[in-house]
Design a protein that fits this description.
Length: 332
């Protein structure tokens, strides 16, 4: 009988079906596979399983042999359900018998997540009832109509409701996996995985899936240098005029160009980066909240608490306590 072979690692099972998107499968293996402890030890063991062992068709011109069946789900700490284009998720509001039987094997304490239209499987299994969830924006209306018990948000990259998570289109699977690694092992590990994969280390789940505007014409200048400089100077009270000056642009031109390139305003982006810095400091240091506020550019502890509560729904002290508690539990 197939089984995980590293009992000291977090076990991840990817449940694939005919028509699977190869990129989504690769995302899970590549990102979780790069996560390492401070001593260099792998933190996750990832396996791929199907409803029955054998060749599984992909969305490309080849099949992939899958040796493991649904029995792997009973051993998994985390189960990932990618999309399936060939079957395009069951049209009925109930699962096919093989898929229902496979999901019945899930442990009660297992974490389950979907990528793209894999959310239809979670919804049909009743795992999204009463929860906020997302999927690819093209399929969001269909998900909502078919499963009215689900609170579908078509405008976010991913959702996190404890042990049930969903993500939007293919690339947002990267954001989701990095989010799970960050939640499991902290910002340092997730950031290192992001660097190894050459992707952004953190995009908030609430960031829009897409920007409703034409792709701008290519230009020789951009806001990249200003963004890099801002990240090195987050502790300072940065202004739009100051950022625009780094690119020799007017404030109006810089504001327009920034939104075209990043998808949010410069001030929104600065707040997101400062929140990210706060999270890192709360996770990795013992600095008091007022020092954290100064280091991240919020100025005062009161300002930090206000922005942090608005962004994450918890206070800085509660975040630090919860996160340190999780790390202590994992270390134990």
């Amino acid at each position: 009988m197939a089984e995980f072979v590293h009992p000291d690692r977090h076990h991840v099972a990817v449940l694939v079906r005919h028509g699977m998107l190869v990129m989504e499968l690769g995302i899970v293996h590549r990102l979780f596979g790069q996560a390492r402890s401070a001593s260099g030890e792998p933190l996750y063991e990832v396996v791929t399983c199907a409803l029955e062992p054998g060749p599984v068709r992909t969305d490309s011109d080849f099949t992939i042999p899958i040796d493991r069946g649904p029995e792997m789900l009973a051993e998994a700490d985390t189960v990932i359900v990618p999309a399936s284009l060939a079957e395009y998720e069951p049209m009925a509001r109930v699962l096919t018998p093989p898929l229902a039987a496979a999901l019945d094997r899930l442990r009660a304490d297992a974490r389950i997540a979907s990528i793209c239209t894999g959310a239809f499987v979670l919804a049909a299994a009743g795992l999204l009832d009463g929860r906020r969830a997302t999927t690819h924006w093209r399929s969001a209306d269909e998900l909502q109509n078919r499963f009215p018990e689900v609170e579908v948000d078509p405008c976010v990259l991913y959702t996190d409701d404890g042990n049930v998570l969903t993500s939007a289109g293919v690339a947002s699977g990267i954001d989701l996996v990095l989010h799970m690694i960050r939640r499991d092992h902290g910002a340092a590990v997730a950031n290192e995985v992001a660097r190894g994969t050459v992707v952004s280390p953190h995009r908030e789940g609430g960031q829009a899936q897409f920007v409703r505007r034409p792709v701008p014409e290519p230009r020789t200048s951009s806001t990249k240098a200003a963004r890099a400089w801002a990240l090195e100077n987050l502790h300072r009270p940065l202004t739009l005029r100051e950022l625009a000056a780094r690119e020799a642009m007017s404030t109006r031109t810089f504001t327009r160009r920034f939104r075209e390139e990043v998808g949010v305003s410069a001030l929104q982006w600065l707040t997101q980066q400062r929140i990210e810095r706060v999270r890192q400091l709360l996770e990795e240091s013992d600095l008091p909240v007022d020092r954290v506020a100064a280091e991240a550019g919020f100025g005062t502890a009161a300002s930090l608490r206000q922005h942090f509560q608005a962004a994450l729904g918890v206070s800085p002290s509660a975040y630090r306590s919860t996160f340190r508690g999780e790390l202590a539990a994992q270390a134990g």
